[in-house]
């Protein structure tokens, strides 16, 4: 049986740039679950930030106190944990997206004080340690974009006075996340 169509097969009507972007996305999507994908994201420190953008997000100190106390109330669910917070059992995808998206970081910043500052840095460093490799919950474009934004806007407040080793770890992680986001953002997000 032969099928004739005046329309070109999927992808052939795209311009060269769009076709290349689509191929990059599909290659990245296939590779994400394979061992060693993380190595393709690099491990270079891009160097110190030259600009420290002012955040327009005004956190909520009461929510910051809850996070400080190990209470994570997101997406209609509340999880109480002081450790292993990144993949708790029996939570919704929306809760995981909120947790991994780090919008709550602004709440800890709004709370202020040494304890909130230390908790924020500890959670960021723990995320870096626990999420070096790709996972659907932590590395989808919308979640990753929210996290990168939160970390960049909170960098000066949280890491400005920190030792260079902590700053370097955060910058390396940001560079890896942005490399992955560059590969998938156009195809995983809607704006």
What features would you describe in this structure?
The protein has 191 residues and is mostly helical. The protein has 8 helices and 2 strands. It has a two-stranded antiparallel sheet with strand order 1-2. α2 crosses α4 and α2 packs across α5 (114-130). It is globular, with a radius of gyration of 19 Å. Residues 1-12 have low confidence and may be disordered.
Keyphrases for this structure?
single chain; 191 residues; mainly alpha; globular; 4% strand
Describe the secondary structure blueprint for this structure.
Layout: H1 16-32, H2 61-68, E1 71-74, E2 77-80, H3 93-101, H4 105-111, H5 114-130, H6 136-139, H7 141-159, H8 164-188
Antiparallel strand pairs: 1-2
Helix pairs in contact: 1-8, 2-4, 2-5, 3-7, 4-5, 7-8
């Amino acid at each position: 049986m032969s099928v004739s169509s005046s329309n070109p097969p999927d992808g052939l009507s795209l311009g060269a740039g769009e076709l290349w972007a689509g191929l990059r996305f599909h290659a990245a999507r296939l590779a994400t679950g394979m061992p060693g994908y993380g190595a393709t994201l690099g491990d270079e420190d891009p160097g110190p930030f030259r600009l420290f953008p002012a955040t327009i997000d005004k956190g909520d100190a009461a929510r910051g106190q809850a996070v400080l106390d190990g209470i994570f109330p997101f997406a209609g669910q509340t999880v109480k944990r002081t450790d292993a917070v990144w993949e708790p059992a029996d939570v919704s995808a929306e809760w995981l997206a909120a947790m991994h998206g780090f919008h709550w970081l602004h709440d800890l910043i709004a709370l202020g004080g040494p304890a909130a500052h230390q908790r924020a840095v500890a959670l960021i460093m723990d995320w870096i340690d626990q999420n070096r490799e790709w996972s659907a919950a932590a590395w989808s474009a919308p979640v990753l974009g929210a996290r990168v934004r939160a970390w960049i806007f909170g960098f000066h407040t949280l890491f400005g006075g920190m030792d260079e080793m902590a700053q370097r770890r955060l910058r390396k992680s940001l560079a890896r996340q942005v490399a992955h986001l560059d590969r998938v953002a156009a195809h995983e997000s809607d704006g």
